[in-house]
Amino acid sequence: MGGLKIRREDLVELVYWRDPKKSGIVFGTVLGILLSLTYFSLISVVAYLSLVLLTGTISFRIYKMFFRLSKKLQMVILLRKFWNWT
Questions:
Q1: What total of structural domains would you count in the chain?
Q2: How far apart are CA 33 and CA 44, in angstroms?
């Protein structure tokens, strides 16, 4: 199958909670998905998770676009000040 390869050592670290932050995130996510499957169908859960992922991705892209735009705008303002000064 390909894409997702988990080493045995990484799995043991997750199960034995050697890094509580990573283990908490993984098991909290799995628990949330299992609880949502008790109330909704698998198709609904997958659709909502995909929608959340898509919304997060688009929001991140818009944030990065505005960040780049503001940096360019700051540069233009600095150049205009320099041109007016000379």
A1: 2
A2: 11
> In this structure, are residues 14 and 23 in contact, taking their beta carbons and an 8 Å threshold?
yes
Distance CA 84, CA 62 (A): 33
Residue 84: which domain range?
Answer: 42-86
The larger pLDDT score, comparing residue 74 to residue 28, is at: 28
Domain co-membership, 5 together with 26: yes
**55 burial type by CB count under 10 A (0-12 exposed, 13-18 middle, 19+ buried):** exposed
Q: What is the pLDDT of residues 27-67, one digit of tens each?
A: 999 999 899 889 989 999 899 999 999 999 999 999 999 98
